[in-house]
# Entry
Amino acid sequence: MPGLLKVLLIATGSFIAIAVAGAFALAAVFFPPSERRDRDREIALHAIAQTLHERYGKERSPSLPLAIAAPAGIGYRNLGNGEYQLCTTFENERPGGTGTWAHRLGRNCFQFSVHDRPWMDPSKRRWIFPTC
# Structure
């Protein structure tokens, strides 16, 4: 019986390894590198907005930091009164839709309030002319 168990474990491990490799290969084919980089930028915007909301959103008059530690290529600007702006440069255009970060090709900025939840409600993502 231990020999059969060993064979089953090896077979299962091999299957998982092949499945993971296949998933990465499909992602490389269906999602070009520029789209993956844009998706990484969207994830960074999402994470920053969520963190600022969680840290300062409960304050009546939040005092946002003047600067934050953001990933390379992400700009932040404190606009006062709990409002802030996040900017980044996208390599592809993404039309609007539910649950997406709609943006144009090139530099894009979004204005938020710490009292909103822009990662939950796309209508709270206000695209503005890039200034940062």
Observations:
- Residues 32-128 form one domain.
- Strands lie at 75-80, 83-90, 106-113, 126-128.
